[in-house]
Amino acid sequence: MRHAVDLNKAYRLLNHGPTVLVSAADGNRRNVMAAAWAMPLDFDPPKVAVVLDKSTWTRTLVEASGRFALSVPCVAQARLVHWLGTHSGHETDKFASGGVQALAEPAARSPLVAGCVAWLDCERVAQPEQEGRFDLFLGQVSAAWADTRVFSAGRWHFDEAPDSLRTVHHVAGGHFLAIGDAVEGGGD
Amino acid sequence: MRHAVDLNKAYRLLNHGPTVLVSAADGNRRNVMAAAWAMPLDFDPPKVAVVLDKSTWTRTLVEASGRFALSVPCVAQARLVHWLGTHSGHETDKFASGGVQALAEPAARSPLVAGCVAWLDCERVAQPEQEGRFDLFLGQVSAAWADTRVFSAGRWHFDEAPDSLRTVHHVAGGHFLAIGDAVEGGGD
Description:
Order of helices and strands of chain A: EEEEEHEHEEEHEEEEE
Number of strands of chain A: 14
Structural class of chain A: mainly beta
Distance between the termini of chain A: 27 Å
Number of helices of chain A: 3
Oligomer: homodimer
Strand content of chain A: 35-45%
């Protein structure tokens, strides 16, 4: 049910503002964290921006490996997202402890999270000064995938799938909002 | 129905990833554009990041004035958001042409858009190199407001108001998704 997304459409996976999971690996060290502060930065080649606090183990792995992945979680994973956002990889290997499953995608160069509805594999665009000053990391998307049940032909279509597959948008303190229904603005 | 939002809660106005309207004024020149690529960057003092293409008149005004505002539009404004996102201020004064109404908020230093559900008045944090290379602009929030019908005590509560007040999240080409229902991740 997973398909590759054309790179020139990859920005659409983040365009509506979902909370994401940020993962990275360096050798046999790996970690994943939750981040509400992520957005597209460019269309083609696609780039993304994400805020990674200095205290996070994921950031250390991004700096060491030069890569990260964004996985877009869904309603069925809300408790997992909150758990990932409130536990540090400094203390426990979140993958090994069984809380989160890695997705077997041979073409991915960073770990992807199973059960999500979209994934963006990214190469860090190193900007040491702005990373240090603002915790702001940029990446160029090298590959992207989506769950065909909710994203195909370059478009999200949540209304045709179970509500458990809708993306989640963090408000605060473990409270999320699911993405809702279509609204037409007079487009093509 | 509009109230000031504590600055340390201002990030919550953008945390769930809504599409925003970016406005700026310099002297008697003013403009407003739509932007799906905006996010919080820091908690306190609150900062935001937004992508402003080199072709936009709004960017010229941000660079000239050192300020901008983000207004968070709602379902009732979906056609307006699409119109603002597809018409350039180089061609027409979008405020004067009657398509969009400015909000009378004496404390705001950039124009705010009436009918929206939240507003963040920002001072540009100038980063000429990254602005030039990535079209990425940063701002520090100097004041924020929200519509009490959908945001109060530091929280969104869309379920207690008409659906026309839900935020909109751009997918592509004038197609939006409204924010949906609450999902608990096990928070406080």
